[in-house]
Amino acid sequence: MTTASDSDPGRPAVRTEGSTDALPLAPTMGMSLDAARMPRRSTLVDRRVLRITAVSIVLGVLAALIARLLTALIGVVTNLAFYGRWSTAFSSPADAVPRLGWWVVLVPVVGGLIVGVMARWGSRAIRGHGIPEAMEQVLLNESKIPPRITFLKPVSSAIAIGTGGPFGAEGPIIATGGALGSFIGQVLKVTGSERKVLLAAGAAAGMAAVFSAPIAAVVLAVELLLFELRPRSLIPVALACVASTGTRYLLQGSTAVFAMGAVTSPGAMALLVYVLLGALIGVVSVWTTRIVYGIEDLFEKLPIHWMWWPAIGGLVVGVVGYFAPLTLGVGYTNIEDILNGRLTLTALAFLCVMKFISWSIALGSGTSGGTLAPLFTIGGALGALVGLGIAAVAPQFGVDPRIAALVGMAAIFAGASRALLTAVVFAFETTGQPAGLLPLLGGCTAAYLVSALMMRNTIMTEKIVRRGVRVPSEYVADYLDQVGVGEACTRDVVTLDSTQTLAEVRRWLAEDVAQTQHQGYPVLDERRRVLGVLTRRSLLDPQWHYTLSLGELLTRPPIAVSEAHSLREAADHMVAESVGRLVVVGKDDPHKLVGIITRGDILAAHARRLREARHSARHLRFRDGLKPRPAQ
Q1: In whole angstroms, what is the distance from residue 285 CA to residue 216 CA?
Q2: pLDDT recorded at residue 15
Q3: Rounded to an integer, what distance in angstroms lies between the CA atom of residue 475 and that of residue 321?
Q4: What 3-state class would DSSP assign to 230?
Q5: How distant, in Å, are the alpha carbons of 35, 419, 451 from that of 436?
Q6: Which H or E element spans position 582?
Q7: DSSP per residue over 485-541, as a string?
Q8: Among 34-43, 294-303, 498-507, which range has the highest average pLDDT?
Q9: How far apart are CA 384 and CA 395, in angstroms?
């Protein structure tokens, strides 16, 4: 019984640095490290990524066409419901209110009834604004969305929005694009991770097609769907958004969705105001989320089937719409008017309050529609109100109400969803105002901070968290991927010789010394190369005759890992091979035994991570090395 030594001789390496292939099998060597099973070294991308990328590009084009089709469908439903005409033009229901009078109340009710029927006998998954449902499928169901959602979601959303629902088209299109990506991922032979990428690519492409905001769409996919930032997922999603936005340019042009007049860069005082405004909006976003889910809880207590809830929500939408026609429909023109200062102080306050009442009750009723546009309207109106007030009371601060509206619009989304980067980039891309970037960054970060302090879950995650889904809230680098096997393995290894008999080894184990308490022992040949590993249980198994040599007892080659591998690769290899320990071989000489890595060693490596995260100490001492002067 010996301990591995770093001076053991080894044969020339058969594995080159950076190779992604396992060690080759050498038939003439028998049971040795030439036949060892080693984990493949991970690479950033491979040929499969190219395949998924090609599919994603096609998916991006399809998502843009679906987005165009959905907006046309919303136009058809709106024109039929409010104007009695057949047209795909994107019309505002507000203009029909004076003509319809109180009949306008019935239109959203009918839409809610239809959506309720579709949800009950079609799929309950069409309820809500789509993103939480997509997140749930990513986290729990290997991104497998039922194919029928691909057409049920856009149709139900078009009916809900077209009959006056105070929602945006972006949520349903994001959900539809994700469902299409998932469907393609179920048709093709792909892994669960690749299917998730296709789902995220379709969802992001849908958002990019609606708002002509490809970068924000990519960031949205990272923050809310992928839960990772890797080249193999980022590349397909990014190119899908490029394809989607390019298709939109061909169909609708490249102008900003919410075009604004030119604004100037803010001064220091104005910037401070925008940051404080963001913090205020962050508080509003928290209470907005709580109220929406509080209303949903109230609907849960109703003594009627949930199929009827959207009709009740539609009744509220209709009544509010009668008194405040601008709350009906998607309201993209409202956002543009807010950002350009076209609404008076009274109009802003009225729109903000009435839109919130209509949207929160309708969303809580479980109908089908998006949250982005309503949040932008509410936050933008509130920001404009504060901006106008400060500009009137303290003009010396140099606050521009239009920038205040822009900050309010983005900050409420950043606070409600905690998709910070998405909110900043989205507001910039949809307005094309570089002077607004710094106020956006400050305001959205302040809202994000307040939201994180006051609220554990978000408007995107609260629903699925209540159903027991654990949603990642922080995306950090895998600690196990940062630590090498050579740093964590046990190098003082007790080894056995292949020529020893079981009788000898069993007598040695009976001595009950420290070296005999291990659960596994590498077996070496006469040239000090590893032939395999025998467990203590195998060595003491009575079915094996005591005259057998250890070499005869080996049944499979060693399962090995190089000291250059990461602990993540080692852990994955253990799972794949169903073992609890791996032989560690040299980086430059794969025949040389370096040590043993066990599951316990991998867990122990986390002690350093926990220490870095929890232990606080002062390390910089200005008086280090100074000695007191001797007395004179």
Answers
A1: 20
A2: 30
A3: 42
A4: coil
A5: 62, 18, 22
A6: strand 581-585
A7: HHHHSB-S-EEEETT-BHHHHHHHHHT--GGG--SEEEEE-TTS-EEEEEEHHHHT-
A8: 294-303
A9: 15
Q: Which residues of 48-60 are buried (b: 16+ CB within 10 A; e: fewer)?
A: ebeebbebbbebb
Measured between its terminal Cα atoms, the distance across the chain in Å is 66
196 alpha carbon, distance to own chain's centre: 10
Of the candidates 363, 370, 356, 355, the residue with the CA atom closest to the CA atom of residue 324: 355
Flag whether pLDDT at 250 surpasses 80: yes
Same domain, 236 and 274: no
Secondary structure, 3-state, 410-475: HHHHHHHHCCHHHHHHHHHHHHCCHHHHHHHHHHHHHHHHHHHHHCCCCCCCHHHHHCCCCCCCCC
Q: Is the domain of 223 the same as that of 285?
A: no
User: Does the pTM of the predicted model rise above 0.70?
Assistant: yes
pLDDT at 7: 38
CATH number of the domain residue 345 falls in = 1.10.3080.10
85 exposed, middle or buried (CB, 10 Å; 0-12, 13-18, 19+)? exposed
Looking at the structure, tell me whether residues 240 and 277 fall in a common domain: no
For 89-110, how does the pLDDT look when each residue is reduced to its tens digit (9 = 90+)? 877 888 888 888 888 899 999 9
**Is there a contact between 411 and 446 (Cβ–Cβ < 8 Å)?**
yes
Q: Are 498 and 522 in contact (CB under 8 A)?
A: no
**Is 31 part of any domain?**
no
* Whether residue 376 sits in one domain with residue 463: yes
* Residue 514 belongs to domain spanning: 479-612
219 part of a folded domain: yes
- Single-letter amino acid code for the residue at 535: T
Q: Domain for residue 5, yes or no?
A: no
Pairing of strands 593-598, 581-585: antiparallel
